[in-house]
TrEMBL record:
The protein, known as: Uncharacterized protein
Top-rank lineage group of the source organism: Bacteria
Start and end residues of each stretch annotated as Disordered: 1-20
Biased composition annotated in UniProt, kind: Basic and acidic residues: 1-13
Length: 77
C-alpha cells in the first residue's frame, strides 16, 4: 500500500517548481486567507453565521484557474 507524502513534503516539492513571482503570490494568498479566516471568526463571535460560496471561477488563459468567493451571512432573529 502506497502512502501519501506528508503535507510539508508536498508543499516543499511544489514550491521548488515555482518561480519567485509564483511563490510571492502564494505567500500573499496565504496571508490574505489568514486575515479572511480571522474576519470570519470575528463575525461569528459577533453573532452571525458565515458561509463562503464560490461565486465565479477566474481563468488565467493558460489552463490555470481560481475560485472567487462571496459570503452568505445569516443573522439571528
Amino acid at each position: 500500500m502506497m502512502t501519501k507524502p506528508q503535507v510539508k513534503e508536498r508543499a516543499e516539492e511544489q514550491a521548488s517548481a515555482m518561480t519567485e513571482d509564483q511563490k510571492a503570490a502564494i505567500r500573499m494568498l496565504a496571508n490574505d486567507l489568514h486575515r479572511l479566516n480571522h474576519a470570519v471568526m470575528k463575525a461569528v463571535d459577533a453573532g452571525v453565521s458565515v458561509e463562503l460560496v464560490r461565486s465565479a471561477r477566474h481563468h488565467g488563459g493558460e489552463g490555470q484557474w481560481g475560485d472567487l468567493l462571496t459570503p452568505v451571512v445569516v443573522t439571528r432573529s
